[in-house]
């Protein structure tokens, strides 16, 4: 398979059953993407496949053949954080931080589809990403800030 | 301090550069996979692992017999709550029978996680199913199947405590016309005569509440990597744990490997909530197998293993009786608990309910209290600490009962509470539970809450909806709680049967360049100690938080500590940091006096500078003092060089944060759906170091408490099969299921430590479940609903409405549909008010 991850092209022969998340973590050593549930409920493994967010724990690596993937480790530009990363930091939208990479990727994907979401739309759009620490309020605020809605 | 500094932890976490245990890959590392029993109770009649060895990539496979010599101590339990407590041996791999679904029968080690998992299928195993006991009341019946045959009983312990003659109060005043007996009730100060006319109107609330089992669900599953450290003739264990120091001791006790040959590292840890306040068989297995095979071993559970084999929280049946006067003054409280241990005792299992026992009287002062707790073995996953650990259970029971009292007396629930609050105090005050609450001002918190929420306005809105027969009714639920935090005074903990001290240690060193290293014995996993401890140190040393680096979680790099749980870290560990900094300043002052050729008493320390009183130009910065202290060439004679101080702080008392919450719930009476519209909370955790971190802790705690009230609950089949075995089946609330929170605080300093801080990690989880449930019952009380158990899922709410309206046909449909044993408990648990 050939895949471009965070701008770098990789070629590997992999077992057909290898999950994309394990390919990223254990073959490419891109450990910013995590496994939380194995059932695509929690979203800790969320990455962008092209422009769209996917749960990499329930997708085979080979399904990404020929595609472009972006993980949380590929969104900063020239060392400058993506506005979503800054917004999560400034709004205390993370505690343990384990869900954060997936949450950030899902939020980035949401804003691409809906650049001006209401609070309710943000909450609905993030329903596939669980956070056990924050109660979500500060995550919603972070997404609002990143969307330019912050007061 | 007191500033909302964005966290120092965040940069690594938002960029994907955190060090999670599962990131670790080492040369030769093997993956450990566990064969778990699919039966809740079964004898293993045949076991052959040789087939697994033929599978590709498999290096070794073991049974319990193969490894029995490797764990002389089994999996230790550190809590002994009564002398008669039954503590069964827990082998990391069973050798006779499996006692819950998930008990470990054999293990495989292979070169990758997929191959290890595959090989489990090639293990031959036959089971002979045995009798299963899944609910506590049946477990205690004569002739019940025994979880541990050798104990001859399913009872783990019976704990009792209390003050005053509670039994007389209840057993003699049940009959409201028994005037003579009622007159024997404790005197009620300032509320009139305890004569027969008064006593005649005494009321007793008698209810049963169910604390359903919960799945803690840290988003990072457990992970452990153990390897031999060739440089040091010992072992290194990286683990996703809250308690690297406790793990070091427990791993040593379990395996016989000397404590000083074990180094435990908790790297970045993805949430714990109590579930990682434990030392698990998988950690023991990783260590002994790394030792036996001489190669690194990794264990990483998946979510279904996490739900089967990581501890569960709660699991109590609570029978509570509360006696009060007709004016709503509480006279006494009698509590009987059944506490579900599960199949084995984990690190603190029996201590969870016992450590919460003294908290049942809550924020109310009265004279008579008794509690009896029976710990009960069942063929279910072991229980242990889950956020709050004993205190949410206590707060729930008393707060539900006080609301029932208000309904019974047709009084406002705020008013009943106010009648029973302690007068504000700022010195330790004796409680019916036998504790010394440190300081409290419930009146201030309650005043602020009703103002913040516009309580009167909400009641008017509720009245309108009632008058309009609105299908969506409004419910207002209070919870006024306190919790026991800052674990804790070592002597008091020993009295609770908790092994080990409750102190905490810190090492603070100002380096030659003036930068500061703080090494702490606390072990954060989301709480932000790297930031808060830096703020504490910066404040004491006159430097900026950016000048401070906090080191934690590695037993080889920090002074031996007691880790992070029980809202203890700030009130014990943060204080150790503060006091160590004071020692540094004291020593620096002596050196500064020497450098300035001034008397020490004439020096003032402010803004990081020592200056001579009255002549501020004569000064030296603490950084320059540090430089001098390191060079050692020009310091007072006989003084040790360097600025490097240790502190071990053992607090004189616990801390008791408190607060007042109001949950505003909308309940659709046609569908049974209940949701939190607004949540107001006024919490008092003493002075605040970092308000954004404190509010964040409250948000997360409230979310988990609301989750218990509305959404979550473990379901087992009658055969002991875990039905909520994955996130598909167990409802963790997502962003759409939770509200925004309206928070405020009052500040009542604790006399238990020099900063007056109390702790906040569990406050939300303790305060919120009764507020939510009280609000739902409040919404539905005009329809006759007086009781409901958690979680208040739509079908349960709808059924309660139908029951109250006399539509018997609908009763129990929901529970029948679930096929849940919880159903029976719930049916029996219907409210019974006398």
TrEMBL record, chain A:
It comes from the Bacteria. Pathway: Alkaloid degradation; nicotine degradation. One of its GO terms (molecular function) is metal ion binding. Keywords: 2Fe-2S, Iron, Iron-sulfur, Metal-binding, Oxidoreductase. InterPro entries: 2Fe-2S-bd (IPR002888), 2Fe-2S-bd_dom_sf (IPR036884), 2Fe-2S_ferredoxin-like_sf (IPR036010), 2Fe-2S_ferredoxin-type (IPR001041), Beta-grasp_dom_sf (IPR012675), Diverse_Oxidoreductases (IPR051452). The keyword Oxidoreductase applies. Residues 1-75 form the 2Fe-2S ferredoxin-type domain. The keyword Oxidoreductase applies. Signal peptide: none annotated. Its EC number is 1.2.5.3. This is Aerobic carbon monoxide dehydrogenase (Quinone), small chain. It comes from uncultured Rubrobacteraceae bacterium. The lineage of its organism: Bacteria, Bacillati, Actinomycetota, Rubrobacteria, Rubrobacterales.
Automatic annotation (TrEMBL), chain B:
InterPro entries: Ald_Oxase/Xan_DH_a/b, Ald_Oxase/Xan_DH_a/b_sf, Ald_Oxase/xanthine_DH-like, AldOxase/xan_DH_MoCoBD1, AldOxase/xan_DH_MoCoBD2, AldOxase/xan_DH_Mopterin-bd_sf. It holds the Pfam family MoCoBD_2. SMART domains: Ald_Xan_dh_C. Residues 173-193, 809-834 are annotated as: Disordered. GO terms for molecular function: carbon-monoxide oxygenase activity; iron ion binding. It comes from the Bacteria. Keywords: Molybdenum, Oxidoreductase. Coiled coil: none annotated. Residues 821-834 have a biased composition (Basic and acidic residues). Residues 15-131 form the Aldehyde oxidase/xanthine dehydrogenase a/b hammerhead domain. Its EC number is 1.2.5.3. This is Aerobic carbon monoxide dehydrogenase (Quinone), large chain.
């Amino acid at each position: 398979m050939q895949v471009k991850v965070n701008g770098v092209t990789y070629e590997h022969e992999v077992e057909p059953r290898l999950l994309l998340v394990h390919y990223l973590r254990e073959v490419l050593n891109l450990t910013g993407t995590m496994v939380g549930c194995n059932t695509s409920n929690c979203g800790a493994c969320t990455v962008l496949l092209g422009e769209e967010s996917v749960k990499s724990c329930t997708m085979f690596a080979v399904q990404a053949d020929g595609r472009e993937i972006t993980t949380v480790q590929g969104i900063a530009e020239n060392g400058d954080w993506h506005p979503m990363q800054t917004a999560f930091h400034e709004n205390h939208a993370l505690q343990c931080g384990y869900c954060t990479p997936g949450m950030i990727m899902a939020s980035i994907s949401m804003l691409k589809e809906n650049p001006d979401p209401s609070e309710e739309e943000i909450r609905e759009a993030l329903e596939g990403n669980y956070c056990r620490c924050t109660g979500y309020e500060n995550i919603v605020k972070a997404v609002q800030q990143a969307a330019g809605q912050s007061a | 301090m007191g500033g909302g500094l964005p966290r120092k932890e965040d940069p690594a976490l938002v960029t994907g550069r955190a060090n999670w245990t599962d990131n670790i890959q080492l040369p030769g590392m093997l993956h450990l996979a566990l064969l778990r029993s699919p039966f809740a109770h079964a004898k293993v009649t045949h076991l052959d692992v040789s087939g697994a060895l033929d599978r590709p990539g498999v290096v070794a496979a073991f049974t319990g017999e193969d490894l029995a010599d490797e764990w002389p101590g089994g999996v230790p339990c550190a809590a002994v709550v009564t002398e008669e407590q039954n503590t069964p041996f827990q082998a990391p791999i069973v050798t006779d029978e499996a006692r819950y679904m998930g008990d470990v029968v054999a293990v495989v080690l292979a070169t990758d996680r997929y191959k290890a998992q595959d090989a489990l299928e090639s293990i031959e195993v036959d089971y002979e199913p045995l009798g299963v006991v899944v609910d506590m009341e049946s477990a205690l019946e004569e002739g019940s199947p025994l979880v541990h045959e050798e104990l001859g009983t399913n009872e783990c312990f019976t704990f009792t405590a209390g003050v005053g003659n509670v039994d007389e109060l209840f057993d003699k005043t049940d009959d409201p016309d028994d005037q003579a007996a009622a007159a024997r009730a404790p005197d009620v100060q300032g509320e009139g005569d305890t004569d027969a006319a008064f006593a005649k109107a005494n009321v007793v609330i008698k209810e049963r509440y169910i604390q359903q089992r919960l799945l803690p669900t840290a988003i990072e599953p457990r992970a452990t990597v153990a390897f031999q450290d060739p440089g040091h003739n010992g072992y290194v264990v990286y683990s996703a744990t809250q308690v690297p120091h406790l793990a070091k001791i427990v791993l040593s006790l379990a395996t016989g490997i000397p404590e000083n040959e074990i180094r435990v590292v908790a790297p970045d840890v993805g949430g714990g909530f109590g579930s990682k306040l434990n030392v698990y068989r998988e950690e023991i297995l990783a260590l002994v197998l790394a030792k036996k095979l001489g190669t690194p071993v990794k264990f990483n559970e998946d979510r279904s293993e996490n739900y089967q084999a990581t501890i569960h929280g709660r699991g109590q049946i609570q029978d509570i009786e509360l006696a009060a006067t007709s004016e709503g003054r509480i006279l006494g409280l009698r509590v009987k608990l059944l506490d579900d241990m599960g199949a084995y005792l984990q690190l603190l299992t029996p201590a969870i309910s016992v450590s919460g026992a003294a908290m049942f009287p809550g924020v109310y002062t009265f004279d008579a209290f008794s509690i009896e707790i029976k710990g009960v073995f069942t063929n279910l996953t072991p229980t242990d600490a889950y956020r709050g650990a004993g205190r949410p259970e206590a707060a729930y029971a008393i707060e539900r009962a006080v609301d029932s009292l208000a309904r019974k007396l047709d009084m406002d629930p705020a008013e009943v509470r106010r009648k029973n609050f302690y007068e504000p105090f700022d010195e330790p005050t004796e409680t019916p539970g036998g504790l010394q609450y440190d300081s409290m001002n419930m009146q201030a918190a309650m005043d602020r809450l009703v103002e913040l929420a516009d309580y009167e306005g909400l009641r008017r809105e509720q009245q309108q909806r009632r008058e309009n027969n609105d299908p969506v009714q409004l419910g207002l639920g209070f919870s006024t709680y306190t919790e026991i935090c800052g674990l804790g005074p070592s002597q008091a903990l020993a009295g609770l049967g908790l092994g080990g001290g409750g102190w905490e240690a810190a090492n603070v060193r100002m380096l030659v360049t003036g930068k500061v290293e703080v090494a702490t014995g606390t072990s954060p996993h989301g709480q932000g100690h790297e930031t808060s401890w830096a703020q504490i140190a910066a404040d004491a040393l006159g430097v900026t938080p950016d000048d401070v680096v906090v080191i934690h979680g590695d037993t080889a790099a920090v002074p031996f500590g007691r880790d992070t749980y029980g809202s203890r870290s700030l009130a014990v560990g943060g204080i150790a940091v503060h006091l160590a900094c004071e020692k540094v300043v004291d020593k620096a002052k002596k050196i500064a006096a020497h450098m300035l050729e001034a008397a020490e008493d004439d020096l003032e320390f402010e803004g990081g500078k020592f200056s001579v009183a009255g002549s501020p130009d004569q000064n030296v910065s603490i950084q320059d003092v540090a430089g001098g202290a390191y060079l050692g060439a020009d310091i007072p004679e006989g003084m040790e060089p360097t600025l490097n101080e240790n502190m071990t702080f053992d607090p004189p008392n616990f801390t008791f944060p408190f607060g007042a919450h109001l949950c505003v719930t909308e309940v659709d009476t046609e569908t049974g759906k209940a949701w939190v519209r607004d949540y107001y909370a006024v919490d008092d955790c003493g002075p605040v170091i970092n308000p954004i971190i404190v509010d964040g802790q409250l948000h997360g705690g409230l979310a988990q408490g609301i989750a218990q009230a509305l959404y979550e609950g473990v379901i087992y089949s009658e055969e002991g099969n875990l039905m909520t075995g994955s996130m598909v089946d167990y409802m963790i609330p997502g962003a759409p299921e939770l509200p925004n929170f309206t928070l405020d605080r009052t500040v009542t300093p604790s006399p238990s430590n020099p900063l007056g801080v109390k702790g906040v990690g569990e406050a939300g989880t303790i305060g919120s479940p009764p507020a939510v449930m009280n609000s739902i019952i409040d919404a539905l009380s005009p329809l006759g609903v007086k009781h409901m158990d958690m979680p208040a899922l739509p079908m349960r709410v709808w059924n309660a409405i139908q029951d109250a309206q006399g539509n018997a046909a609908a009763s129990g449909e929901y529970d029948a549909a679930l096929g849940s044993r919880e159903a029976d408990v719930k049916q029996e648990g219907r409210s019974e008010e006398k």
